Amino acid sequence: MREFSYDVVTIGGGPAGMAAALAAREAGAKRVLILERDRELGGILQQCIHNGFGLRRFEEELTGPGYAHRYIDMVKATDIDVWLDTTVLAAEPGGVITSVSPQAGLTVVRAKSVVYAMGCRERTRGAIRTPGSRPAGVFTAGAAQRMVNMEGYLPGKEVVIVGSGDIGLIMARRMTFEGAKVKAVFEIMPYSNGLTRNIVQCLEDFGIPLYLGHSVTAIHGKDRVTGITVSEVNDKLEVIEGTAFDVACDCVLLSVGLIPENELGRAAGIAVDPITSGARVDQFRETSIPGFFAAGNVLHVHDLVDWVSEEAAIAGRSAARHARGELAPSGRERSVMAGEGLRTVVPQRLTDFEPGKMSVRFYFRAAKPMGASLLQFWADDALAFERKLRVVKPSEMIVADIPVRKIGDAATLEFRVVPAPEKVAAEDEIEEEA
Amino acid sequence: MMAHMVHAIQCIGCPIGCGGEVTVKDGVVAEMTGFTCNKGLAYAAEEVVAPKRMVTTTVRVSGGGLPLLPVVSVTPVPKERIFDCLRLLRSVSVAAPVTEGTIIVSDALGLGVDFRAARDIA
Q1: Chain B within 8 Å of A196 (Cβ-Cβ)?
Q2: Whether B119 and A50 lie within 8 Å, measured CB to CB
Q3: Does residue B54 sit at the A interface (CB-CB below 8 Å)?
Q4: Residue A111, helix vs strand vs coil
Q5: Which of A126, A167, A218, A428 could connect to A229 by a Cys-Cys bridge, CB 3.0–4.6 Å?
């Protein structure tokens, strides 16, 4: 078995892994390696052929492969090593990474710093416990996306989509473009989890109906799916008797959420945030195991790749500093809480700030849709910072920079999203009517 | 009496997602309500008169590592011609290698819209 040693190794060569590796190299790490299980770099972006990527990062609208290409070119212009077709089996504390590939066989890499960048996986039919038989023709939307956009197969001709996540909406348009009839999208929640832009341009443009507050109560078919039964649900998400109806189809696509593909992190014993299912990290994106960092969708599921690149650059720079012994373990550690109105916050903890650090960027997911609101930061139970949000949607990440001087030495740190006082809300209404 | 139509338009410019109405008289935008920024007003005005969309799809590629090449319109396509463009692109086949940015179809259907390769295929 061959052994190698590197300063920084990223596990995953998608947008997070590439951005982390580039940032690590720029920050002075001499030997940097990207481990990628696919045949090429780029990760999931390579199958996301629609456009709309990169408005923030490159200030232009790119396709998924186009965004990936920018980063692949940047990686190629450096001496960063890339191992393709390489699956990591384990990454143990101390930085011992065991991987396997058809070309190199079983290999051990010793890394001073490791960046987890494995991305996320789709929730499946099992995850939403859909009753009924187990026929062929039921796919996750992302699996269908790969078939249609990269492999040249159409997974069905009469399609229903369950869940209104962005991949499902994008696939509604994509299947329509390829000649399939998309009959409807069914969403159990009273609101969509997709971006408004996608509801308009992927459904309304083609007259595809979106049923909110509807749940699939049966999937029919013996060998191949023949249809589904759908019912309305009440505000407790319980099926309302007498509302059931059937929809015939030969294909069901599921777009019911994403979960970090964090098995390597869990196996290594990192502390995991039960809500994000990703690592609990500090502002350097360091996990509970020193020298192990996390970024991108394996840390928390993002809606924009631009934020993934930015977050991964933080992880990469920190990994380079750790490799040089400059990121000393901090004596003091403070938890950051997602309070009222919020589901998640990243980073979940703060360690000592770098000298000269002016602000810390936090990323949040809201618990429910809200109108005009205030994002509040509470330090030791005193309101330290407040920012107006014109609208709050669980599908769109909230990003806020909190000045270090507002964080101070407080022991307890909590964020909340609360409805804006009426005066602020009223001003908004006037503005919207103008 | 002038032709008078009110269109409900959902803005897609940002997460706020304003819903508004555009009144068109004799093919000209006469009044807009509900939009709260200039970007929204511009989008809504174009959306009722001449809606356009960027189009992304795939064409066949032979001799490469993958059977399909993703392509993207360089400029937006008039909405009512999207399916005509897709039909045209379905008949297109190219040979590998292809580099990102190569024009695969120029001036599709005389619309003045080019389609280019969205990635390399070795």
Answers
A1: yes
A2: no
A3: yes
A4: strand
A5: A218
CA angle B64, B65, B67 (to 5 degrees): 70
* Closest among A364, A428, A362 to A391, alpha carbons compared: A428
Quote the minimal CA–CA distance from B54 to chain A in Å: 8
Residues A413-423 have pLDDT tens digits of 999 999 998 76
For residues A51-71, average pLDDT: 93
Is B70's CB within 8 Å of A152's CB? Answer: no
- Tokens 């956009």, residue located: A149
Yes or no: say if A281 and A299 are a contact pair by the CB < 8 Å rule: yes
**If you write DSSP's letter for every residue of A192-258 in order, what string do you get?**
-SS-HHHIIIIIGGGT--EEETEEEEEEE-SSB--EEEEEEB-TTSPBPTT--EEEE-SEEEE---E
Asked if A69 and B57 come within 8 Å (Cβ–Cβ), the reply is no
pLDDT in tens, A3-53: 999 999 999 999 999 999 999 999 999 999 999 999 999 999 999 999 989
Q: What is the pLDDT of residue B15?
A: 65
With beta carbons under 8 A apart, name residues in chain A contacting B61.
none
A343-396 pLDDT per residue, tens: 999 999 999 888 888 999 999 999 999 999 999 999 999 999 999 998 898 888
Name the minimum distance, in Å, from the CA of B17 to any CA of chain A.
7
A49 and B17 within 8 Å at the Cβ level: the answer is no
Who among A63, A195, A390 is closest to B118 (CB)?
A: A63
Q: Do A196 and B57 touch (CB under 8 A)?
A: no
CATH code assigned at B91: 3.10.530.10
Domain boundaries, chain A: 2-121+259-329, 124-256, 359-433
Radius of gyration of chain B (CA): 19
* A124-256 classified as CATH 3.60.21.10: no
- For residues A162 and B13, which has the higher predicted lDDT (pLDDT)? A162
Domain span at B72: 56-117
Q: How many domains does chain B have?
A: 2
Which of chain A's residues have a Cβ under 8 Å away from the Cβ of B72?
Answer: 49, 51, 63, 66
Query: With a CB-CB cutoff of 8 Å, which residues 202-221 of chain A face chain B?
Result: 204-205
Q: How far is CA B84 from CA B56, B77, B79, B80, B87, in A?
A: 13, 10, 10, 8, 5
CB A292 within 8 A of CB A286: yes
With respect to residue B122, please indicate whether it lies within any of the assigned structural domains.
no
Q: Which CATH class is domain A2-121+259-329?
A: alpha beta
At residue A292, the pLDDT reads: 97
pLDDT > 70? residue A433:
no
Residue B117 to chain A, least CA–CA distance (Å): 9
What ipTM was predicted for this assembly? 0.90
Same domain, B70 and B44: no
CB contact under 8 A, A200 and B54: no
pLDDT at A217: 92
pLDDT above 50 for B45: yes
Q: What is the pTM for the complete model shown?
A: 0.92
